[in-house]
Amino acid sequence: SKNVEPLRTLVNVVEPLKIYTRNPKGTLYNSYYSFAKFADAANTDAPDAWEFRKLTEAYCAHPTQAGRERLVNWLRKWKNNHRALLEIIQISPVLEEVKDLSEQLMVLSDYGLKAFEGPEYQSKSWEEQVEIVLSKARKQGGRTELQIVDAVKQLIEFEVKRRSEAPASL
Question: CB-based contacts of 145: which residues, under 8 Å, 6+ apart?
Answer without folding.
Answer: 14, 15, 17, 138
